[in-house]
Structure formats: structure tokens, C-alpha cells
Task: structure prediction
Amino acid sequence: MIYTPEMYESLKRVEATRSARLSETFPRMSAGEKDEVLKQFHPDFISEAFATLQVGPNKGGRTPRELARVLQGRAVIGPDLDLSRTDIETDVLVIGGGGAGSAAALMAQENGAKVVLVTKLRHGDTNTMMAQGGIQGADQPHDSPPIHYLDVMGGGHYTNDPDLVEALVLDAPKVIKWLEGLGCIFDKKPDGTMITIHGGGTSRKRMHSARDYSGAEIMRTLRDEVRNRSDIFVLEFTAAVELILDDQGQCVGAVLLNMETDEYLVARARCTILATGGSGRLHYQGFATTNHYGATADGLVLAYRAGAHLLHIDTMQYHPTGAAFPEQVLGFLVTEKVRGLGAQVCNLDGVQFVNPRETRDVESAAIIRECQERAKGVQTPSGFQGVWLDSPMIDLIHGPGTVQKELPAMVRQFIRFGVDITKDPMLVYPTLHYQNGGIRIDVNGATDIPNLYAAGEVVGGIHGRNRLMGNSLLDITVFGRRAGSAAAIRAREVQQGQPTLQHLADWERQLKEAGLEPEMSAPILLPDYTGKQ
Amino acid sequence: MSEELIPIYVMGKQYMVPPSLTIQRAMEYAGYKLLRGCGCRAGFCGACATVYRIAGDYRLHIGLACATLVQPNMYLTQIPFFPAERKQYNLMELKPTPETLFSIYPEMLRCLQCGTCTKACPQDIDVRAYMAAAMRGDIAAVANKSFDCIMCGLCAARCPAEEVQYNIGILCRRLYGRYIAPTAQHLAQRVQEIEAGKYNQEIARLKAMPKEEIVKAYNSRDIEPD
Result:
């Protein structure tokens, strides 16, 4: 048995309370209670963990220390890099090979552009591939885009850009239909009706899923389609380390690094799309993360240095249920769908202490409070702690075999290390999951910098200060497509000036004037886990 | 908690590592900064396909480095890439028929049904069974059986008939999703309604609401029951 005696005792208590809890609904918090638990326990409110930016478009703004370090880092290359040779020339350069980048590449190509997609790992080694729950869209009769709009705004604490939210919810059914047409296999009833469930913060059941491989199903389908288009050239293990501007401040391409040969390449494009994803591998406040290996804020760094404004970079999303045990799966995503299917969250004593469907920030803060202030968390052998997510309830509610059928990826993940989630509850604790904010864009994905677009997790404003489950797979598809189309159309009329890296010289000067001695150069491209346990 | 270190061999070279680590973490512990063979680190992307033997045992084992614990005297190597030709096709012009499969991947019919692919799969997929279904032209069965495929390439690496099973899998899944699975009618209808502008006014109204009003509207939402 891999559990400690104390864990085993606690597990027994969870089993003992289970049948009573099946008919118990823990009340949702009032607005005031939510505010209080967030301010006292959510990581966003730990002021020592944040720094004030000294340079750049967000000067004076707050951001986690780890992100401030990279945003205010030195450039990787010097301003004197030779730009006279062009190694790659195209209409639209897409930086990032995830869902947003792939959707952008497809729509750019469909709008007549030649596309080069560069990615620092493989095409598909991304957060998109790992997303488990689903994609939101108001396509059911008793639902509507305005209801979806309200859910998004409230979940984001009303700080969202209304135009972006409008685009998100109105495009949602269209992009889900697009994905269906590309061959994505969504969970459906025999007559074709989409099977949709709740996520945290939703007022209607509008999460569409593909078993628990929703992100993977979308990612591999988009990737496969990109590979069918001869006008899209994919270059893997090639990272963007700097944007190239021209003498009019337009983006005219990027300096790329071949990660395997350490060779720099000059890529010129009429329009450039940043789709570089999130930043979980910066491990804010030392949290474990659900993110893939390359989530290191590269696109934020590139855009910031070139003068783009970032929104809401003082808030990060912690997924309330990251795996806390066994150690090999620490930080792994335990999808919100588990709660959507009826699993409850219990403490050391097998008692519920929070409604399982609060929004992610509230749910996370409540779990942290339960472990810290109330000391009702369960300790693991490696010194971590968590609370129980009672997955065996799901088979009791929906019938035997439901967990295996609906959550095959998760069953597999845990069984590899000796935990059978169909029989035993999972230990969970908040894990760093999503970058709520990012580069400011308009409804077509255009950033502050002419001919530079952005889409996906790297973008800010859509979700305000807190994203709802299922709206990320949605936003990458909606805004990936919009940015791709817009970039291709814009590319037809672009007139470029002389390419220059002058903005790097400006950056060095700004750093000096602010008295900053950067600790590192950025983007960091990959985290360093060598030699540690 | 201190653990007694165990020996593993990365491409033949010995390193002493804690036994509680996955292969991926053990390689990093040993000093490797991974570039190839590391993606999502959680079993979804297929980047970290690994083959290994345990000293003294002839049997060949496979696994994902991110999801497989090290064992004493494990001799391992990663296979981050295996050459595999993928045919280009226009899904929109294909028919969901056996002939489509045979014409795009004619080499599929070389399958011996030996089952080596099933043994090589880290996702417990019965690859042999979906190849059998493919040879029968049963696209729906291929889609269903291959659904958990992360396209890690181990099946293709081991196949004596030089197949690339996962290419056939994804072609069938997309054919199934587009042509065989029933279309969601309510979805098509909603898209039409949106394009006709049915919701524009209501959203404009919400956008124009002062904050107190939208807060009130949000807090008084009725929540659809399960």
C-alpha cells in the first residue's frame, strides 16, 4: 500500500461519509464570502511574491517576481546581429505550434498566405495537447451566447474586454462546428446531439468534450490538417528569440534559434503571429504546474521588449485540483470534469468544505484555507499536502464504468503509479495552470505593434482576471482563426521599411536608466531541472 | 526522506538515481538537460517514447519516460523521432470508404497481424485489432479503438511490415468525425441563428450595462441543474 497510515485512516473516513454525501450539496459562497477567501488565501494576494516593473509599457505595474525577472531580462542577441541575410521569407510567420498557432496557420493559408510556423519543441508539444475537460460553446437550445457572455464576465470579475468576450461567445458555435467538420470526435448522443456538461462557473451545461482527451483531439486534428496544406511550412526545434521591427515600428519578422545547432536564423514576414502559450514553467511562488515543458513566457518577453502592452499580468490561475499524490504526478492536471461529473471535495475528516463548482480562483483559495488555516489537509510522505477529490462517487452517480469511460487518460496516469481512481479518491492541491492575462489585442488579434498579432494563452483581456474551464480551448480556436485571417489579409498590403534591432539598444538603455542589473537573459526557452530531485 | 540510489544506464552509461523518479526526471537528475524527447511531461504528447531492458532479462520493454518509474539496472534509450511518411490528403474530398484507406496507405495491407504493435503501445491500445479493422475497412472501429493514441511512434518503430499504424489511426478518426458520426443539428442551427444576428441586440445590451447591473445579472443567474 503506497498510502501512509494517516492517509489510509483519512481515506476510510471519506468512504464512510460517501453515501450520506451523495445527497448533500454544499452551499455556494456569497459574493462577500468569495471576496474574503480570495483576499486571504489566493496566491495572487501574497504581496511579497510580486514585483513592480521598472521598465517597459507596463512600468509601475505589478507582476509575479518570476515573470518580472524575465520581462526585464537582457535580450539573448545583440542589437548588431546581421539582418542583411534572410534565411526564411514568408507572408505570415506563426510563432508557436499549439492550438492557436495551428488554427492561425490554417486560416492564414485559407486566406491566401504562405505560412511558416516555427515551434521550439515539436508541433503539438503544447498546453493544448494536455487540456482535458472540454471546450465551451452555447449551442444547446436552452443556452445562448448572451448567457455565455454573462458567465465569462462574472468569472473574470468583470475585468474582461467586452469586445473580446462578445467575439468569443458569438464565434464559439462556429468554431466548434469547424472542428467537427475537420473530423474532431466530440462526445455525442446517438442522434448527433452534443453531450455537454457543467464546468466551474457555468450556468449552463455547455462544455463539449472528447472523452478526457479534448485538448489532444483538437490539437492532433489541427496538426494533421496543417500537415495537409503545402503552403504551411512547419519548422520544429526552432525558437523565436527576438522580434525584428522596421524603422516605422512595424514588426517585420523574428530572429530564430535552431535549438539543436545553436544557429541563428533571420525570418522575414509581412505579418507575424505570436502564439507562444503560457508561463507555468516559471513556477510562480514555487507552485508545481500542469503546463508543458516549454511554457516559459517567451511571447510575453518578445512583445514586451518590442513595446506591446500586457493586461492582467498580476494574476495567474491556479487549478484547484492538481494531483498531490503520488509524488510522480505532483502538479498534474486533474480535470474539472471530475467535479463536473459529481465528485466532491473533502477534507481530512471526509467532510465537504466547499461547493465543488465554485470558479477556479475561489475553489483554489478554499482548498488552501482548508489546509493552512483550518489544518484539515492530508499530509503526503514527501511533505506535500492536499484534500480528497472523491472520484469513486462518479460511478455511484452515473453507473459502473463511468470513470473508466469518461476519464481514461486520468485512470491510466494514476494506475501507472499504483492508484486506482475508480476505487480510491485522489489527493489534490492547487497547481499553477493558466496565465489569465497577456498581450493586449483587438478582436482580430492585432497587438499594439503594427503587423504583430497574437492568439492563445499569450493573450490578455478575454478572460479578465480569471478564466472559466473550457474557454481556453475556445479562445485559442476563435482568436487563432481571427488572427490568422486578419494577418493574411493585412499581409497583402504591407509595405515594409528597413529592418532593425534598434529596440534592443533602446531596451538596454532603459534598463541602465532604471538602474537594473538583469539577472538573466530572456526568453529562457526551457526550464532547467538538471541535477535536482 | 532519503532514498538509496539505484543504477540505471542511459544509452549504456551508468548513473545512480533515486528509485522514486520517473525515467524523465532521473535523466535530469543525472544532468541531462532535455531538448528532444520531452514535451508535456504528463503522458499526452508522445514526445518521450523510451525502450529499455533490465540487465539479465532478454525481454524488451517500452514506456513513456514521463510516466515510467526507473528500475535497478534499467538500460534505456529514447526514441524521440522515427521516420514515418505521412500522405497529404484533402479530407473534404474524401469518402469514408475502405477504398479511401487502401488508396492513401496501400502499404497497410502488408500487415501481418503479428501483434508487435500492441506490445509496443504505452497507451494499452490494441493496435493489432485496429489494423485488422482498417484492413476490413471498418473506419468507425479504427476510430474507436485508436482514440487514446498519442502518436508516439513506438508501433511504427517496431513493426516488421514497416507500417505507420498511427497515420492510419488519425485518418480514420478524422473520417469518422467528419462523415460517419452523426452531425450535431442543434449546432448547425445555432450557427445559422448567430450569423443571422439573432443575439446581437442582447449582447449589445449586456455590453452597455453599468457594472452594478451586470453584477446583479450575474449573481441572479439561474443555474441549470445536473
User: Anything to note?
Assistant: The two ends of chain A are 23 Å apart (CA to CA). Chain A touches chain B through 91 residues (CB under 8 Å). The domain at 5-41+317-433 of chain A is CATH 3.90.700.10 (Flavocytochrome C3; Chain A, domain 1).
